[in-house]
Amino acid sequence: MSITNIPEIFGSNVFDDRVMRARLSDDVYNSLKRTIDENVKLDENVADAVAEEMKNWAMEHGATHFTHWFQPLTGVTAEKHDSFITPSKDGGILMEFSGKELIKGEPDASSFPSGGLRATFEARGYTAWDPTSYAFIKDHTLCIPTAFCSFSGEALDKKTPLLRSMQAINRQAMRILKIFGTDAKYVKTSVGAEQEYFLIDKEVFSKRPDLKYTGRTLFGAMPPKGQEMDDHYFGVIKPRVAAFMEDLNEELWRLGILAKTEHNEVAPAQHELAPIYSTTNIATDGNQLTMEIMKKVADRHGMVCLLHEKPFAGVNGSGKHNNWSIGTDTGINLLSPGETPSENAQFLLFLSAVIQAVDDYQDLLRLSVATAGNDHRLGANEAPPAIISVFLGDELTGILEAIKNDTPYQGREEVKIKLGVHALPRFSRDTTDRNRTSPFAFTGNKFEFRSLGSSNSIACCNIMLNAAVAESLRQYADILEKSEDFENDLHDLIKDVITKHERILFDGNGYGEEWVKEATEVRGLSNLKTTADAMPHLLDEKNAEMLKRHKIFTDAEIHSRCEIMLENYVKTVNIEGLTMVDMVRKNYLPAMERYLYRLSQTTVLMRQVSPNVKCNYEVSTMERLADLTDYILDAVVQLEDALATFKTFNNVFESSEFVRDVMLPRMDTLRKYVDEAEMLTSQRDWPFPSYGQLLFSVN
Ligand code: ADP
Ligand code: MG
To answer: How far apart are CA 247 and CA 244, in angstroms?
Structure first.
């Protein structure tokens, strides 16, 4: 594809603003626009008019079906296709699509996780059009982004609370902006999600049951070459991968997803894609689509795209970076230091709001990225630690220090900072040095939350982030709205926030042992290492109260979500355990036995030929392998016991602790012995492709 085509194909499969403006009448367009921008309720006649044009446009672009596209709590997207066909009176067909069909769908939702919500309320759920995210065409189907709720209105998806959180932060941020004086009508949060992934050859993949069933390798000794040479990061992209990327970009562009940069990552076979940022819910839809299309395009190129957080032990896993900022409809980024004293004060207040939010709700941010897969990364010296902290960089830290202590700021020029009176000392964005070990880093005009796992929906962390920042802003607005001496009160407020929350600020090495000690013992920060540790905190009164206050979740939704996420965790590990047992009993032990047979036969034969031959290799290998088969048998029996016990739990809190304390350690033990056996067994007898074959399978 030549470059000149890009503007032409970009968004060609999206019913976006350009299409709406061109195809809808002015009245309909303006009315829809008010719904999109200002959340004004949609008129039924407008919906009919939009549906009609959407259908015509979709059919012109080859679509025959439509679907409500939604994001249930499984973490992947769901769709159910209906064709536009309606029988006509004369026995033929009409292609129809009504406003009603656009606005509401009723998929048979009984097999989506609901954490008991539907049981207590209604048997079925419904989907409702989210007009703030554009409809698009995928595989001859018009996809309508929707929210998914129970009939009593409880959210059964990730989008509903995300939209609610965007409203919450808009409400509170507008209160603040009004105090400063603003011509903005609304505030929106924006996100750019950088996505990491692995590509491996389909042939090799298909020979690994663990990859097929669980998305990660449950066994595998390290290859002679891993990532230690650092030669893959930003390295030359292989032709086959380049062809994949080109194809992927084109598909994403057609869907209006602003795929922008791509490069090799640290581990062999690992890559990254970054889009240009957009409004949070559009970015979320875009990221879900990106993951789906990555898999589809990889398949076309004879490869498999692994989105698991830790497909391979011993080499880096994959994460996702959630770049987050908050801005007005008038184009002001509230996390960008401004030119005037007033803009600066506003910037510092929003900065404070984020700092306080991260400190007050560390646990919510941590649990928003907690999954069985991501537990393998956080705190494993390759990803940010499970401890949440904020990196600001030297200069901004210096400015906050100066405000806190009422001392002159020792920047390039010495200035005492009085908010609202002085301009901020200029600091260059470039010096916000890129501390890669920080989970939550200020990068000049946005915060980058780096703890997400590669397969996480970005909805979860943005719900929590928006909610927590809305809460800081609410508290500030309550104070400042009543203030009679705005400048002084603002100064005191910011000073107070910095003093109270400076424990969350940390610019040092987040991977170090010393940090864990300091963070937990001196600063009292939480260190929630696993999903089992983190998830129950969703129910903490402090958290539940805040989420309810901002109407992000109801009590029932909070409980159901906690349960679903924990269920997801225990089910995932359960499948991994079962897969391990299967591979060990059916393949690894028999393979070792085969090799033992050859070794012992060889020894006997060799000694027949020459009685004094030592057979050191044969005998020593045989002895160790024989021991290992015993250890492996023992370990697999232990794991089977754990799997049996696991079935007896009917409380997900208990079973998740059991998974953490018993299952996972037993899986580790089993793996350790099998990996050692791999190094001793001839490749001919080993039943599955090695790490080397997997990681270097794409050339
Ligand atoms: P890098 O991390 O390589 O420095 P960028 O700073 O350009 O790259 O951004 C990384 C990601 O952050 C991209 O997805 C980008 O679109 C996004 N991003 C940039 N500015 C903002 C912003 N103001 N709000 C949210 N995301 C942003
Ligand atoms: Mg980044």
So the answer is: 5
The pLDDT tens digits for 576-590 are 999 999 999 999 999
Ligand nearest to the CA of 333: 1
Q: Which atom of ligand 1 is nearest to the CA of 335?
A: 23
Q: Is the pLDDT of residue 39 over 90?
A: no
Counting DSSP H helices and E strands in the chain, the numbers are 26, 20
Rounded Cα gap, residues 47 and 164, in angstroms: 22
b or e along 573-594 (b: 16 or more beta carbons within 10 Å of the residue's beta carbon)?
bbebbebbbebbeebbbebbeb
Q: How far is the CA of 455 from the centre of ligand 2 (A)?
A: 16
> Which residues, in sequence order, are CB contacts of 199 under 8 Å at separation 6+?
241, 244, 269, 271, 298, 303, 304, 305, 306, 698
Residue (of 430, 443, 432) closest to 324 by Cα position? 443
Question: How far, CA to CA in Å, does 243 sit from each of 284, 305, 346, 572, 696?
Answer: 26, 14, 46, 33, 17
pTM of the model: 0.93
Tell me how far apart the alpha carbons of residues 174 and 515 are, in angstroms, rounded to a whole number: 37
Q: How many CB atoms lie within 10 A of CB 209?
A: 17
**Residue 43, number of CB atoms within 10 A of its CB:** 16
* Nearest ligand by distance to the CA of 321: 2
Q: Is the pLDDT of residue 360 over 70?
A: yes
- Pocket-forming residues, ligand 1, beta carbon under 6 Å: 190-192, 194, 274-277, 323-325, 333, 443, 445-446
Closest ligand 1 atom to 448 CA: 12
Q: Which ligand is nearest to the CA of 278?
A: 1
Q: Which atom in ligand 1 lies closest to the alpha carbon of residue 277?
A: 16
